[in-house]
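Figure-free illustration: sequence to structure, shown twice.
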Amino acid sequence: MSLNFLLKNVLRTTSAHVKKLDGLGLSTVRELLEYFPRKIESTDLVGNFLEIRLGEKNTLSGKLCDFRKEKTPRGKMLGRAALVLDDGATIDVIWFQIPYILRNLRDESRVFLVGKVDRNFGKIQISNPEVHLDKNVHVGRLRAIYPESPPITSKWLREKIAGLLMFVKDFPEILPEEILAEKNFLKKPAAVKQIHHPDSGEIWYAAKKRLAFEEVFEIQVRVLREKFFREQAAKNPFRVKFDPEPVKKDLKKLPFELTTAQKKTLFQILKDFELDRPAHRLVQGDVGSGKTVVAFLAGAAQIRAGNQVAILAPTEILAQQHFAGALKFFDEETRVELLTGSVPAKKKEEIKKNLRTGQIQILIGTHAILTENTVFKNLGLAVVDEQHRFGVRQRAILAENHAHVVAMTATPIPRTLALTVYGDQDISVIDELPPGRKKIITRVVADEKTITLCNRFIDDQIEKKRQIFWVCPLIDESDKIEAKNVHDEYDRIAQIVFPKRNVEFLHGKMKPKEKNAVMQRFKNREFDILVSTSVIEVGVDIPDATVMVIENSERFGLSQLHQFRGRIGRNEMQSYCFLMVGKKDDAQKTRLQSMEKFHSGHKLSEIDLELRGMGELYGVRQSGIPDFKCADLSDVETLQSARDWAVKILKEDLSLEKFPALRKKVDSDETFF
């Protein structure tokens, strides 16, 4: 099929471009044709002086005259010329980097220039314009603007994609005819062609809307079909009837009272245990909201029924923290074991043997739990902490024997994301912090005077026996990224800013044992300041940490900043978060100020989603979450419509036999399932 042709075999381009395309995940004709533009712009020709729009990008048509090169006082070369428009008016032209095309251009050649036109010292001037010698895919019409990653530019993409549009006819139509008819959608081939090479603004938006709907519809069909199949086929061998009396006894043992949100979530999980099908629930709550104790309480119900519980954590240090918590929570009759990569081989063998015989009631661990020879006798509940850090297939291993699965995440999930990617799960939200916790005072720090005051305040906190997290975006210095790094900041803080304080550093390239040792020493109060990368986003609790400093905070999404902030304020002491702005004039300062106003992860996630998109919402791409090419997660109407149609189609034909193209796409596409 032509859509599967390799780009390296059909494009005339350089190896550097092919390598970059591969890095972007674009290796076939289909993948490049599905690399959709983010917007369009008009390049309608302006040949008359009175039609020029000052302060905007214009496409000017005329004769280029008197081209010359000049040296600036600093020795740089620039190009100058005059453009004579069709009505005889003259425009000054300047290039700060001379285009290659001008080197052999004859005087008074007809050209098309695309660039911003402004008034400069009383003269009308177009600066750094593109130069075209004839009408093409770049001038004289609407043109597409793509996400760029040099050397892959919008100009390069327009030229290459124009030569591949003949293949759009091979795109299969996966939307059912009844959807196309009711919504008056373009057919798939026409939509792909028009989004790259639109005849009008209206048809470009129509193509985008149709492709966005298909993208969300396909996800909805996949997740809902998975859910319907699971509910039809799965039986619940670990059904536990809800009994409030032992639950009340469990709650009385706690040294604190659960919040209303915690109680509601626990009740939802316990009611799930009564259903005909296994639970498949996602619990979302900010760092410190008390998700783990809810998981322990749910686990207690399964243990009373004679079943086993597994708790899967993404890091060894978090697994150890859960293990320590479980030992305190459960009575001595409940056997709890820890299984991680650092457990000696002999001990691992013993744990797995006792797990098979049912002597171990609770197993807490990392990926080591997912090995083939880790076999449970009767796993009733699997709890997956920070579920996005595990692949979907890894998470599914724990559910293979129809165990109830409760996933937990501190990543705020916008309502629209819950409608799409997590549509196959029931969702509970813990949106309250435990009583006694104070809101963390957050301030954006963007000038030297405030930095000085901030450092004095931090020193005073250390004097009061408080501890400090100091987060940097990078591990080492980078030529490509202008941002603070752990090693340089560690030296600066330890030697210049706080020379009398004890400072350590932590980053992701360190070995697990080294990281665990540093965090344990920090918890034991052996040093005052921990300079770290984002590895502290998920980690051990440090009760005495009351200050979080985040360098180059403009480089992080609000949701990730909120998770960093959640690492402090874990007790009744007042805590503080300082958001350092790397570029003092950075326009992101306004965005960051929402951290001062809002303390709700959900609210911040919605702001992040609107301003920066889903990739930024999660800081890095999460396992299990797709990259949307057209869909807009703020478009609730489209999301809801796609979901309604997916439900309707699946109720009519769960096997999708009437829709072979859709079934083939859903069954073959393993983007995130």
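We now fold a second protein in the same way, so the two outputs can be compared directly.
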Amino acid sequence: MTSSKNSYDVVVVGGGHNGLVAASYLARAGVSVLLLERLPHTGGAAVSAQAFAGQPARLSRYSYLVSLLPEQLIADLGLDLRLVSRSVASYTPTLRGGRAGGLLVERPEGDRTKESFRELTGGDDEYAAWERFYGDVGALAEVVAPTLLQPLPLEREVRERVDPAVWRDFVLNPIGETIEERFTDDTVRGVVATDALIGTFASLRDRSLVQNRCFLYHLIGNGTGEWRVPVGGMGAVTDALARAASSAGAEILTSAGVSGIRAGAEGAEVTWHDESGSHTVAARRVLANVAPWVLRILLGEGEDPDTKPQGSQLKINLLLDRLPRLRSGVDPRVAFAGTLHLAEDYRQLEAAYADASAGRMPAELPGEIYCHSLTDRSILGDSPAETHTLTYFGVHTPAALFEADPDAAKQLAVSRALAALDEHLAEPIESCLARDADGRPCIEAKVPQDIERDLAMPGGHIFHGDLDWPWAPNRTRLETPAQQWGVQTGVDSVLMCGSGSRRGGAVSGLGGHSAAQAVLAER
């Protein structure tokens, strides 16, 4: 299939969620849009798939929860999408002095949360510190979240609206220093710290503050930072966006791999290949929903191995015949209802970073588990009543660890991840695994190299590179719409519209929204 015209106002390269957001906004405004997607389907990392033969369950195979996607964006585009709150924020199983226990954080927090802190720490001071900490986070989120759908504010404009102590603790000082100053219990410190490390390989005391930026993005979504489950899985998000784009008049071509962009100041030509051959169209603007590293290749600059991003995560999808029992005796429907933290005490996180930095697979692999089917059973289809999905996301597993012997390294990483879970179970997780049509256990693992192969994310980096602060440095030039929205590239006719934009990262739609607004501001 080829395009219906030879030229468009805008060509969007890449049909992930940000590309679909941009196409939807632009087409609704009367802009002619062609969206080109390399894969046979749109959605990018936000897809649902039947991962195991003979099993009807549809898993969120890559990205898995929604927080940063603004409610206003959902309303603007009229998306048929329902996001559901989880009944539990987190549960962290513990083993102290040979006794199995755990830290429960309810949503919303109540007496059980306070009592759980007391049982773990022996008093109420740590929970009081927890409340103060997240009160400060909430105050920062209330200031930053409303700016995300606006042109970039300058750093000083945001700073002026935030308490100086809060700005110091979350923006200026490494988040690890703040956590160490605010909390004393190692488990509590670790639960707080994990939001700084999802998809980010860094020490909690790293002076680059990349971990602080990751932490901020994980806690400012819609001013609350709540991570919700999309009914129908992550594919429901991008399916709704694809419908919105198509119904507004955007033209979408799949199995169309873009091979080059020839760009000038006033316009560009985009070339792609499909089963029928090579095709080229002209555009006034090209929106690149690919990583900046990939965009440079498409523009003819060639590959630069020294600047290639490096992802750092282990994703494991599991399908269970039943939820496992825990040594602590807590109801599995409670323990797995939110985020289950494993080997994520503060000292364990830093030790794992030290191991990985030295080229070793972490001896204790930190990670967390989510059971979406406790919140949304629709993803299970007609599976038996006790069937459940589990999603594991591990940190501090950089791509470099899998380069020498990928299969052996992946096997080792998976075994250590499952061992961290089994430590807290009354029965091994393997005994609970469902079987596919061929009798194989229902478990699949994705390391950074798999993400790069499947989704063309360089280095398997889920954010397309290190995250930026969602505001502009004080001396930044904000003269053009592209600069004002944080989507500029080195070529006037090409704009970033994905996770590589100033406010990109996660399933937020912010990169697509910003690119669309920059185009509309030029009209």
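Summary for the second example: The radius of gyration is 23 Å.
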